[in-house]
Amino acid sequence: MDVSDEMLMAYADGEADDATRTLIEAAMRDNPEIRRRVAGHRALRQAVQGAFAEVLDEPVPQRLVAAARGAPAGNVVDLARARAGGGKGLRRWQPAAMAASLMLGLALGYLGWRSSNPLVTSNGELMAGAGLADALSTQLSSDRTPGRVAITGLSFRAKSGDYCRTFSLTGTHSSSGLACREGGNWKIKLLAQSPQTPPGASTFRPAASADSPAVRAAVEESIDGEPLDQAGEIAARRENWSAPASR
Amino acid sequence: MSTNASAENIQEQIVVLLPRLRRFARNLVRSPHDADDMVQIAVERALLRLDQWHRDARLDSWLFKILRNAWIDEVRSRGRRAKIFLPEEAGEQVGEAAIDREVERLSVQSALARLPEDQRLAVSLVLVEGLAYKDAADVLEVPIGTLTSRLARGREALQAMLRLPEGDH
Fold first, then answer.
1. Which of A53, A215, B11, B24 has an alpha carbon within 20 to 30 A of B128's alpha carbon?
2. Are A75 and A201 in contact (CB under 8 A)?
3. Does B90-164 match B1-86 at the fold level?
4. Residue A52 at interface with chain B, using a CB cutoff of 8 Å
5. How many beta-carbon pairs below 8 A join chains A and B?
6. Cβ-defined contact of B74 to A79 (cutoff 8 Å)
7. ipTM of the complex
8. Structural domain of residue A24, as residue ranges?
9. Is pLDDT above 80 for A154?
10. Measuring CA to CA, which residue among B87, B74, B79, B83 is closest to residue B37?
11. B49-77 pLDDT per residue, tens
12. In terms of domains, do A23 and A130 share one?
């Protein structure tokens, strides 16, 4: 008798019809090989079932709850619009964006120096202040707990070998940026105004962590390989984000 | 939606489904933040189209379908250039350095990420989200035979990557 692997798979998934089920159960009684294959399907089913299970335990970002409850659309990020600038014209306007970002960065650095210190300057270089540095060093990108100094977005290894992370400052500074871990400090490589900060968006935080096109461009420029997944972030955090020995 | 009350009721059901929508989205885009953006877009679209949802259909399948379509639109609009924000597609595009890194034992999650997209979504809907074959086929808008063959190929690839003990129990 011929029992196909798809039949065995459907049986293991509880999807086989009565006739097929009877057939397979008879085959399993007679044939250890069939038994083994069904057990293999079940073992895989069990192993895969738990993938991403940790996502279910994460707190759901407030912006998603608000969206599900029909919050006014002006408050929420429009991904397509936010990225419209990231299309073909990117290379052309990137230097201007960088320059503008730098100006903004200097201004914010000055502000930061005077107030809550998200950014500080040291020897003429812009660094993350204590609060932001702490967020960059400890937060995973999946962490969306409210009340943070900053939201971390994407983490990756740069071509230089250093770890870099994108971030968005919360609160009054609605800007996003890119920081890289160099010499035990988080150096600010780029800071840009976050896209789409709609007026009157005070009821809940806009998705400020939507990286600006300038930040995305900087990521694309410097990334080596793929962004880190959560396991990668945890591993990097364990090493305090110090660059691993070159491969 | 017939009355405001029922619309609100559906909204709360959507809130309850958010964790699963977020989980499914992680199979579409690698960055958790981008995945949440996709969920947000899908939820906003769903609310605009509540009248298209039939009460006898599963709300979760309907939302998964909207999420998947939102993702397809997004991928199309970004083009291939932004590939770094998407999961690596398949073994064929993995460079040698990446393979070296993967030589260490693959977790289920990273094995899933290496499946071709068609297979990854079939596996995710059936094995992770627990949808019936017919519901998963409906989400992916393919005939059930296509769904089962993608699922079978995906499982075979996962078996090979994970080298699970072939259970004698």
1. B11
2. yes
3. no
4. yes
5. 162
6. yes
7. 0.79
8. 5-51
9. yes
10. B74
11. 888 888 777 899 999 999 999 998 887 77
12. no
Is residue B67 within 8 A of residue B45, CB to CB? The reply is no
**Neighbour count for residue B26 (Cβ, 10 Å):** 28
CA distance A244 to chain B (A): 13
| CATH code given to domain B90-164 | 1.10.10.10
Q: Which fold has domain B1-86?
A: Rna Polymerase Sigma Factor; Chain: A (1.10.1740)
Rounded CA-CA distance A202/A205 in Å is 7
**What is the spatial distance between Cα A69 and Cα B50, in angstroms, rounded to a whole number?**
13
pLDDT digits (tens, 9 = 90+) for A98-149: 555 555 555 554 444 444 567 777 777 778 887 888 889 988 887 767 667 7
* Residue range A50-80, pLDDT digits in tens: 888 888 888 999 999 999 998 754 433 444 3
Question: In chain A, at which residue ranges do the beta strands (DSSP E only) sit?
Answer: 119-122, 125-128, 150-157, 163-169, 175-182, 185-193
pTM tops 0.80, yes or no: no
CA distance B93 to B96: 10
| Residues A45 and A111 both lie in one domain | no
Residue B110, Cβ neighbours under 10 Å: how many? 19
Residue A165 lies in a domain: yes
Closest CA of chain A from B35, distance in Å: 10
A201 Cβ contact partners less than 8 Å away, ≥ 6 residues apart: A74, A75
Residue A7 contacts B where some CB pair is shorter than 8 Å: no
Residue A86 contacts B where some CB pair is shorter than 8 Å: yes
Which chain B residues have a beta carbon less than 8 Å from that of A215? none
Residue A58 lies in a domain: no
